[in-house]
TrEMBL record:
Domain EF-hand as annotated: residue spans: 203-229, 238-268, 283-318, 322-357
PANTHER family assigned: CALCIUM-BINDING EF HAND FAMILY PROTEIN, RETICULOCALBIN
Range of residues in the leader sequence: 1-27
Domain of life: Eukaryota
Keyword Translocase assigned: no
Protein name per Swiss-Prot or TrEMBL: EF-hand domain-containing protein
Lineage, highest ranks first: Eukaryota, Viridiplantae, Streptophyta, Embryophyta, Tracheophyta
Keywords: Calcium, Signal
InterPro entries, A to Z: EF-hand-dom_pair, EF_Hand_1_Ca_BS, EF_hand_dom
Organism: Solanum stoloniferum
Length: 373
């Protein structure tokens, strides 16, 4: 049955490509194609400021990962060199050298090697799996995006583990772990210094088996607690929220502390179902009080760590949240017949939606490339 579906996909794709290539184009609207360009999302031991977009295409992700690994290796060596001889590392003051990756960009733009239409034809049956019915749904696309993200996140975790695992035993102890540079380069009066994200409580909460060491799974949770299923780490997240929001330092969150901060995060998470432009300040407060009362199970007028647990996923969105955002945007842009799902033809007709993250948006003089049909 599986082989038959593959044959059907290939036959349909070949027929579709034939029809597209022989269909007339409007003479008054010439095609404009963008040149694919590798992105630079590389950061070295710094505090993240935004959520990074993960490439839709695993092949593009692999090329970008290879470039990022090379830059990481260069800066990692330079940084440790600086620590040893106490002199400025030359690599820290220079811009990334992209010459080594020009061949990769040529690869992306060579019609004989990387054809956007061919790539979409190849990837379509890998996305259309639940069920395999010739349509890509929001759920299927979300699962696909999430799979690509998890591969990327785990790769970066493995790279970070190489830095912190000083004795190379496959584990990281708290003694081995070095806080991020934004902590090391600040003092105890600097903004953010007292955040618990790099302290021993955070480490211990990530240590599921309590052996004092973090394996790769635990270390991945340590670096990305929003995606964990570890109840100790989720409890720690709730504890951190209370510590950061507790302005009167009584160990709990009252309504005012909830309303001025936490409620905005919850509302933003649910922004698709909340039209804030039609709500006054009074109505917002009313909504906040309703949610506060639902969370305050013991009715004491405060939110404890356990009572914050039902909304912790909204305060710290997981990768699935961002994967769904990306899927929703793609379907919104490419779903021509507005049926909430994508056919292979709709995907081929809107290739820029899937590959826009690596198109050179700054280049106004788009070149014509038949490979980007």
């Amino acid at each position: 049955m599986g082989k038959a579906l593959v044959i059907i996909y290939i036959t349909a794709a070949v027929l579709l490509l034939f029809l597209i290539s022989h269909s007339p184009s409007p003479s008054n609207k010439p095609k404009r194609h963008r040149r694919l360009k590798l992105r630079s999302n590389f950061t070295f031991d710094s505090q993240p400021t935004h959520h990074e977009h993960i490439p839709f295409d695993p092949l593009v992700a692999q090329i970008e990962r290879q470039r990022e690994d090379k830059e990481w290796e260069k800066q990692y060596i330079d940084t440790h060199h600086h620590q040893l001889i106490h002199e400025p590392a030359p690599g820290q003051e220079s811009q990334p050298e992209w010459e080594d990756f020009m061949d990769a960009e040529d690869y992306l733009n060579d019609e004989h090697k990387f054809n956007v239409t061919d790539r979409l034809v190849l990837l379509f049956p890998k996305i259309d799996v639940h069920p395999s019915d010739g349509f890509v749904t929001d759920h299927e696309l979300t699962d696909w995006n999430l799979e690509q993200t998890r591969k990327e996140v785990l790769h970066r975790t493995q790279r970070d583990m190489e830095v912190h695992d000083k004795n190379h035993d496959g584990f990281v102890s708290f003694h081995e772990y070095e806080p991020p540079s934004w902590v090391r380069n600040s003092d105890n009066t600097s903004f953010g210094y007292d955040m618990g994200w790099w302290k021993e409580d955070h480490f211990n909460a990530s240590d599921i088996d309590g052996d004092g060491l973090l394996n790769i799974t635990e270390f991945n949770d340590f670096l990305h607690p929003a995606d964990t299923s570890n109840p100790k780490l989720l409890h720690w997240l709730c504890k951190e929220e209370i510590r950061e929001r507790d302005s009167d330092k009584d160990g709990k969150v009252n309504f005012n502390e909830f309303f001025h901060g936490l409620f905005d995060l919850v509302r933003n998470y649910d922004e698709e179902s909340h039209d804030t432009s039609h709500h006054s300040e009074d109505s917002q407060e009313s909504l906040a009080r309703k949610l506060f009362a639902e969370l305050d199970k013991d009715g004491d007028g405060y939110l404890s760590e356990a009572e914050l647990l039902p909304i912790i996923g909204k305060l710290h969105p997981s990768e699935r949240y961002y994967a769904k955002q990306q899927a929703d945007y793609i379907i919104q842009q490419a779903d021509v017949d507005n049926d909430g799902r994508l056919t292979l033809k709709e995907m081929i007709d809107s290739p820029y939606v899937f590959y826009s993250a690596i198109f050179n948006e700054d280049d106004e003089d788009y070149e014509d490339h038949d490979e980007f049909r």
